[in-house]
Each structure stands twice: as structure tokens, then as C-alpha cells.
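Quick one, C-alpha cells below. Sequence please?
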């Protein structure tokens, strides 16, 4: 099994089709966490429970992310998310999946956006599990179009 950090290929096509709205009042994006047993990569197209972490306090499907409105940095289009905190959980995660639950404005969708690789297992025991996103600039933002 493997988790490879990437912007999902299906997302790139859907972006050109206008299916994702990253404005703060736009679509709902979530972050689900996965164990080392998961297989996630650029080829991931949808949220899956296969390999998703299981543990006290963690809810299947993860948590809703807070968007940072899209902007530009030089010639790069960027968007980002605020720090995501899973509170009072006992889990071990190797990576995550950002996905859109309202693609095209339709509730109940699970379109994959990006795979996050934490590089090693990260653990929280009866505490907070925090995912901090990189600086929102043209070289570091989690989602950038160059």
C-alpha cells in the first residue's frame, strides 16, 4: 500500500469543467485521514473508506475544511485551507484526502481534490490531531495553478 502526495488527476479535469468553487462561501471540502494501509495517489477519484483511520473520536469522512479565498501570487493562482484540527481523537494517520462534498453544487458528492502524504505515521492519543497547511503563496500553497 502507498500514499503519494498529489493533486488528483480527475480534479484537474473537473476544475476546467467548473465543478469546484473554492470561495469561502462556495462548496464544502473535507479532509479524511488514512492509515499506511491505504492506497491513495494522483489516480484517486473519490473519497473512500478503504484504509481510512478508525479510532476514538474520529468520524468516517473526516472534518469540514475552512477555505481561504482564491487569489494570485505573481502569475500563480492559489487557494489554501485553514489549519484543520481533529479534536479529542485516538488515531494514527499516514496521510489524508481532501475532497469536495458539493461538486457542481450537488450535495453528497465525494470528488477527490488532493492527496496528502505525512511522510510517516502521525499519532494522537486522546488529544488533538492537527493538519497545518503550507503558506498560501505561489510556491507553497496546497493548491496552485502555475
Amino acid at each position: 500500500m502507498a500514499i503519494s502526495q498529489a493533486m488528483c488527476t480527475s480534479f484537474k479535469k473537473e476544475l476546467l469543467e467548473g465543478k469546484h468553487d473554492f470561495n469561502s462561501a462556495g462548496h464544502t471540502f473535507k479532509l479524511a485521514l488514512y492509515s499506511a494501509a491505504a492506497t491513495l495517489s494522483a489516480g484517486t477519484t473519490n473519497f473512500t473508506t478503504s484504509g481510512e483511520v478508525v479510532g476514538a473520536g474520529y468520524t468516517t469522512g473526516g472534518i469540514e475544511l475552512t477555505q481561504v479565498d482564491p487569489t494570485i501570487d505573481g502569475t500563480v493562482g492559489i487557494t489554501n485551507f485553514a489549519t484543520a484540527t481533529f479534536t479529542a481523537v485516538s488515531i494514527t494517520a499516514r496521510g489524508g484526502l481532501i475532497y469536495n462534498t458539493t461538486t457542481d453544487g450537488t450535495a453528497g458528492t465525494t470528488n477527490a481534490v488532493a492527496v496528502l502524504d505525512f511522510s510517516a505515521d502521525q499519532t494522537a492519543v486522546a488529544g488533538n490531531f492537527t493538519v497545518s497547511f503550507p503558506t498560501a503563496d505561489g510556491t507553497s500553497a496546497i493548491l496552485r495553478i502555475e
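The longest helix spans residues 9-16. Helices lie at 9-16.
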